[in-house]
Amino acid sequence: MIDRLTEAIRKTGAPVVVGLDPMLDYIPAPICSDAFAQAGQTLEGAALAIWNFNKGIVDAIAGLVPAVKPQIAMYEQFGLPGLEAYKRTIDYCHEKGLLVIGDVKRGDIGSTSAAYAVGHLGRVRVGDSFLPVFDEDFATVNPYLGTDGIRPFLDVCRQEHKGIFVLVKTSNPSSGEFQDRLTDGLPLYELVAEKVAEWGEEVMGSVYSNVGAVVGATYPEMGAAVRRLMPKAFILVPGYGAQGGKGSDLAPFFNEDGLGAIVNSSRGIIAAWRQEKYSSFGADAYADASRQAVLDMIEDIRQAVG
Amino acid sequence: MIDRLTEAIRKTGAPVVVGLDPMLDYIPAPICSDAFAQAGQTLEGAALAIWNFNKGIVDAIAGLVPAVKPQIAMYEQFGLPGLEAYKRTIDYCHEKGLLVIGDVKRGDIGSTSAAYAVGHLGRVRVGDSFLPVFDEDFATVNPYLGTDGIRPFLDVCRQEHKGIFVLVKTSNPSSGEFQDRLTDGLPLYELVAEKVAEWGEEVMGSVYSNVGAVVGATYPEMGAAVRRLMPKAFILVPGYGAQGGKGSDLAPFFNEDGLGAIVNSSRGIIAAWRQEKYSSFGADAYADASRQAVLDMIEDIRQAVG
Fold it and tell me: For residue B185, with 0-12 CB atoms within 10 Å meaning exposed, 13-18 middle and 19 or more buried, which class applies?
């Protein structure tokens, strides 16, 4: 799967992923009121609003970027209807030729991680059938439980040609509380990065591994450090845009081949229509505002990374 | 919520939680074949088998224990139908007077953790409505992202009188890979335990906090250490039974008041009918075998903890 991602980045010239993390606040009022008129101020109504909103964005950005990253929490908070919108979004993105990184941050003891791996990236056995479930192309994974929480994901990645991104250094302000703690002189996130490199050897693509890492744009020096520790791991970089990461912060995440990283922006793209900069589009043309924000982001990264 | 849990433990005399983690292999063949006959070898068929199986167990154990702990991964792997069975199980357990600990191990950056907190423990806003979603009583939470990934859960716990159990030292063999790393002479899990105590101060019940911790029965010495670090935190103890933890390992997790811990068993209870010890029940009476396994577990813990 990492080879498909690399190819799609080359083709689009955009090491960019659009985070489909719809909050109801990001959705223009008419879309919400139409959905509520149809399905009520219910979980179903919220899910319908999200789906209609997402569809507009996906139609506007398909072809510009290689991948999207729906954050499952934003769907899960609306229960079963929300998760149905999550699945529908995944399937629609696939139809449109976009790769899908499920930002699920799952991770548990071995037998439980196996269930998550199967449910998100693999096929689950029911009687004699093996059925795809959520069927994302990549999933994000939490490493706190250690190797035996990761191994089932490696097994599924190998069988199904899928990939994972392991949380190494997250973009949030308090990520250092545990992740930066020094142990034998090394911060914890570097130990995790070393493990990412080790796990990655087992599921190599042609150049990069199907085991990547999440490292926040908000911590560029740390990005440089882990870039060296795991040269074959792709870095999924959240935190660009609304969280404070700038284009000029991004160079350390990339390798000399101009690859090795893919930068996510969520709010900065999908809620672009609410920004002063894109206000001329108006709420009705929210998807066009998102498209322009993607083009601007691609240009910003091109200038920074070259 | 921790006060309700404490009260329910006193009433049942059982600091025991039954893990509702149904794998299809645990389900007697006739239940599966009936479900497949009705809904096919599909996700719906699997979910129906799980639900019918769970219902039998819950009917057999209600009144004996204070709480159940469904592991969401075992439902999520069957997609939307599986998650519908998860929700149905939660609601049915509530009807039967059981508290529900959602073993979801969620955790993300602040705004995303807020969505998880709302979706699992709180109420989500849709227009002018505030709607309960999965509505577990407690949820397990992953601490890797630090305080700002935890804070939204604290806020929801305060508003909704709910609780969380933060992963401190998990029961799996490789949990030490990161959790045991020494930093300033202290293992990481002790630092997390100190944070659990700190976070817990904000959402105290009458004696114990609504912020508890997960510490595996497989690591009793570590249980003793963190017990001292967070005297007001309830410890949710997985790993008893099938994972190797014994009754005699459990004393260090409890306080002198005989409270402060609740021990989970999943496979050892719900798949009891497959054990030599309970084979006389037969597959048809799988729920009676589970009931007996619960009674035996309660007795084992009573002898060990006194």
Answer: exposed
Q: Which residue of B has its CA nearest to A45?
A: B126
pLDDT digits (tens, 9 = 90+) for A19-45: 999 999 999 999 999 999 999 999 999
Beta carbons within 10 angstroms of residue B277's beta carbon:
11
Residues of chain A with C-beta less than 8 angstroms from the C-beta of B147: 174, 177
Q: What is the CATH number of the domain that holds B264?
A: 3.20.20.70
pLDDT in tens, B263-300: 999 999 999 999 999 999 999 999 999 999 999 999 99
Nearest CA in chain A to B216: A109
pLDDT at res. B298:
96
**In chain A, how many domains are there?**
1
CB-hemisphere CA count at 13 Å for B202?
19
Do the Cβ atoms of B80 and A83 come within 8 Å? yes
Q: Name the residue range of residue B49's domain.
A: 2-305
**Token digits of residue B12:** 């049942």
Verify whether the Cβ–Cβ distance B177 to A195 is below 8 Å.
yes
Q: Which residues of B touch A215 (CB under 8 A)?
A: none
**What is the pLDDT confidence band of residue B305, given thresholds at 50, 70 and 90?**
confident
The answer to whether A178 contacts B110, with C-beta atoms less than 8 Å apart, is no
> Cβ–Cβ contacts within 10 Å for residue A128, how many?
7
Tell which of A51, A69, A105, A189 to mutate to test the B interface (max B CBs under 10 Å).
Answer: A105
Residue A245 — very low, low, confident or very high, per pLDDT cuts 50/70/90?
confident
The amino acid occupying position B282 is G
CA distance B130 to chain A (A): 9
Check A170 against B124: CB less than 8 A apart: no
What is the pLDDT at residue A246? 80
* Confidence at residue A57, expressed as pLDDT on a 0 to 100 scale: 98
